[in-house]
Amino acid sequence: MKIPYIKCHGSGNDFILIDEIENDFGFSEKEREELSLLLCDREKGIGSDGILFVMPSEKAEGRMRMFNSDGTEAEMCGNGLRCVARHMIEKLGKKEIAIETEKAVLPVSQVEEIFPEIDTFSVMIEPVSFEVDSLPMNFAGKEAVDVKIPELSEERTFTALSVPNPHIVTIVDSVDQEELLSVGKKANDLPEVFPNGVNVSYVQILEENKIFVRTFERGVGLTNACGTAMSASSLVSTILGPNDLGTPIVVINKGGLVNCVVEKDNGRFSIQLRGNGTNVYQAEVDVDLGALTFEVSEKQFFAEENATYEKLEAFAASEIGG
Ligand SMILES: N[C@@H](CCC[C@H](N)C(=O)O)C(=O)O
Fold first, then answer.
1. Atom of ligand 1 nearest to the CA of 227
2. I need a surface site. Which of 20, 188, 195, 200 has the fewest CB within 10 A?
3. Quick one: a GO cellular component term (predicted)?
């Protein structure tokens, strides 16, 4: 089976984008899982944090399904949705469209650049819920806001929320990557507390409306950035920290930066996530799922936009002294 794909990223969170509107491959659920395991592998595969399947929708201009590198499907993917938004916006020649995701039809648009020369896409992150049942999380209370989870850490306090994939967020003085790795692994090996697993983020407040976020992603591990995690972290650091509602929060990550605007309307939170949707290259992969082998054609790189993105990356690194 020959599958054209685009290798793309949002803040260095990288994906293989497969357009099933252009080509109806008729993948089974098992094939989606197998493709993710085979192609996302960093050593033997193409290498990526996940696959974005772009499909037709009856409710919107397109539909996104996102599979993590371990073959599991996520309810939502913020960085991935920006890449899908860019793909569909360019394809349809419109600036504002809607994309169906597992839990909601979400508005996406091309907006003012958040960094010089970086085409910027805004995606709505919702529904948002602090109810522990929405993750799900087994906890003695309706919500778990700024609470200890002794199975994970004796010291830290976490806030649980779904956006709508499951997240826990802790605010720290400085991000200890080794600790995050260990806590992330523990949290995803704790079905009695998190039956469906959970994304774990450590947030450092750099100044008012500027934070640094690192995330251990369910189904992947430590990634350069996670869009839903940066959105969840912006909301938590608005409620528990110095950030403001309705104001762009600059979120620095290992792969760049995004802006998040947290809004509250009739008691309900939503977050606008704004950032890049950068294409790295396009190619075709010839996959034999029976033999679990594949071959990639010659790659056509998007050299200019990648060179431009390097400037944003360098700026973001300088913001955290890297
Ligand atoms: N990196 C994504 C989130 C991908 C899904 C996540 N690992 C999960 O299983 O919930 C993002 O940018 O939001």
1. 12
2. 195
3. cytosol
Q: What is the DSSP string of 103-137?
A: S-EEEEEEES-SSTT--EEEEEE---B-BGGGTT-
Mutation probe of ligand 1 site: the residue of 68, 108, 162, 271 with most atoms within 8 A of C-beta: 68
Looking at the predicted structure, is the pLDDT value of residue 231 above 80? Answer: yes
Please report, as a single letter, which amino acid is at residue 192.
E
3-state secondary structure of 315: helix
Strand 50-55 relative to strand 62-68: parallel, antiparallel, unpaired?
A: antiparallel
* ipTM above 0.90 for this complex: yes
Residue with CA closest to ligand 1 atom 4: 77
Number of domains in the chain: 2
47 and 71 part of one domain: yes
Q: Is residue 299 part of a domain?
A: yes
Contact assessment for residue 250 and residue 320, using Cβ atoms and an 8 Å cutoff: no
- Kindly give the pairing relationship between strand 73-74 and strand 199-207: unpaired
Residues with CB under 6 A from ligand 1: 13, 66, 68, 74, 77-80, 165, 199, 217-220, 226-228
